Amino acid sequence: MSKAPKVERDPVTGALTIKCASMWYAFLAEEAYFEGDLARHDEFMANAEVLNQSPRGYLHSKTLEEHIKKWEQQ
Description:
Elements: E1 16-17, H1 18-34, H2 38-52, E2 58-59, H3 62-72
Antiparallel strand pairs: 1-2
């Protein structure tokens, strides 16, 4: 288990920054891999790679927010 990334948000909308969302998807991919869930690993890693191609912006994702909440409670 690696250290969870820091959460960075847009001060106006509260959405996750693209960089933050990408780091979280990569983190979740790594955790899924360690758990042996290769399907989720591939899904999370694909999301991280797509976001890495975006230079800047913000992301609203209910699913990603739910995963972040789970990790923050641990």
